[in-house]
Design a protein that fits this description.
Number of strands: 14
Structural class: alpha+beta
Largest sheet: 6 strands, antiparallel
Shape: elongated
Order of helices and strands: HEEEHEEHEEEEEEHHHHHHHHEHHEE
Bound molecules: zinc ion
Strand content: 5-15%
Helix content: 25-40%
Radius of gyration: 25 Å
Oligomer: single chain
Distance between the termini: 62 Å
Length: 407
């Protein structure tokens, strides 16, 4: 059990090879630096001249620092030097929701060290992927990345709130794992040039933070960067064999951004390169042109950009429709009732034929993950709201066919 910042610093350096250095601390809510009350980053800035560049694993240096500054907070240098990257989650800006929606779409994160800051946020430690990772702000609402050239203030430092940083799960319990979707570290950030207030406003007004651009498309995006990031998050692959479908989907997203609607395909190459870079960061087995030609072929075939067309209308109708009485009695999830209404709309559209519905479309339509959509559609078959006429064919990437029997 670590009790002082010196003990913590020695343990980080000695046990895990993390480079550490002292930061100013907080006493009675005030920074120990000369600025005192006027300090804008109480307890978070370095005590040494070169900050994270002074960081070391040398126990002698560490001991000397804390003899000079016995109350100093302890900081860990992130990046290659300590072989860690940190996801910095701020729930006040929607970070917890972003993290959840990320895992809903891409799969759960493996067990990893988690430190609680004294301010309600968390630091989540992952192994450095090898390639240089720049620190980034707001890769998604409330999620920053601390990478090469950055640092984190670590337990048992004192936070401005007076509480100490503490480990929820420390690195002795579980070492920093690889991030299963490391392209996340390299996402372009849409909010980089906005001030904090704009960001906060945007985050709090967003209906569903995060991962999916949603079936509404990118019409409401404020900048090319934001549109691109949403399109990337909604279409980057989660496994092999998805390139063709997802690139077409990427094209549908991009075309829903007004500035791109009539754009020649040649002007899209930089964005396809972003997709390629993110999707293949760690599996560079295929050349860019395979992706580019595939995308180029699809671009002119996009007749329904994301958020337009019959599906969109049906979703809108489903959202305001009255669900069947039996369902309203049996179920409580509003999204589930909406999914039933959507199936009913699809059946009306299909007439006497069965209709097809992919779990991805179903999920995005009602705001749940594809995995949940799969479970729910299955449940609706069990509860006899749907008959599955034909199962999904994964090898041909064909969605399942259903017949609605809910009324
Ligand atoms: Zn200060």
């Amino acid at each position: 059990m670590t009790t002082t910042c010196l003990d913590a610093a020695l343990s980080y350096a000695g046990d895990f090879g993390w480079e550490v250095f002292p930061c100013h601390s907080v006493q009675d809510g005030v920074c120990t630096c000369r600025k005192g009350k006027g300090c804008s980053e109480p307890g978070k800035h370095p005590r040494t001249r070169h900050g994270h560049q002074d960081a070391t694993t040398d126990a002698k240096d560490i001991g000397a620092w804390w003899r000079c500054y016995p109350t100093a907070n302890v900081a860990i240098r992130t990046g290659q030097a300590s072989d860690i990257i940190v996801l910095d989650i701020d729930p006040r800006h929607g970070g917890d929701d972003s993290l959840q929606s990320l895992q809903d779409r891409l799969g759960p994160l493996p067990e990893h060290p988690v430190a609680e800051t004294g301010g309600g946020g968390t630091h989540r430690l992952f192994k450095h992927p090898g390639d240089r990772v720049a620190g980034r702000q707001a890769i998604m609402p409330g999620i920053d990345i601390r990478g090469d050239g950055n640092y984190i203030v670590a337990p048992v430092s004192v936070h401005q709130s007076g509480r100490r940083y503490r480990w929820r799960k420390d690195a002795a319990e579980v070492g920093p794992p690889n991030l299963p979707y490391p392209w996340l570290f390299f996402l372009p950030t849409p909010n980089a040039h906005r001030d904090i207030d704009t960001q906060r406003h945007r985050t709090s007004s967003a209906r569903v933070p995060g991962v999916s651009g949603g079936l509404g498309g990118l019409r409401d995006c404020c900048s090319v960067e934001e549109a691109l990031q949403k399109a990337l998050l909604a279409t980057l692959p989660t496994g092999p064999g998805q390139r063709h479908d997802l690139l077409f989907r990427f094209a549908r997203y991009l075309k829903s951004y007004p500035a791109f609607a009539q754009a020649p395909v040649s002007s899209m190459q930089p964005y396809v390169r972003e997709w390629y870079t993110a999707a293949t960061q760690f599996t560079r087995t295929q050349p860019f042109e395979d992706f580019w030609f595939d995308f180029a072929e699809g671009w002119d075939k996009v007749t329904t950009p994301m958020g337009t067309g019959a599906m969109k209308d049906m979703i809108e109708r489903a959202k305001v429709a009255t669900p069947p009485a039996r369902a309203a009695k049996e179920y409580t999830h509003p999204q589930l009732l909406c999914l039933i209404c959507l199936c009913r709309e699809l059946q009306v559209q299909a007439g006497d034929s069965p209709f097809y519905l992919s779990i991805r479309t179903a999920g995005e339509a009602v705001g749940i993950s594809a995995r949940t959509a799969a479970t729910w559609l299955n449940g609706l078959v069990v509860d006899r709201y749907l008959i599955r006429e034909k199962a999904a064919d994964k090898s041909k990437r064909k969605a399942a066919f259903y017949r609605y029997t809910g009324d």
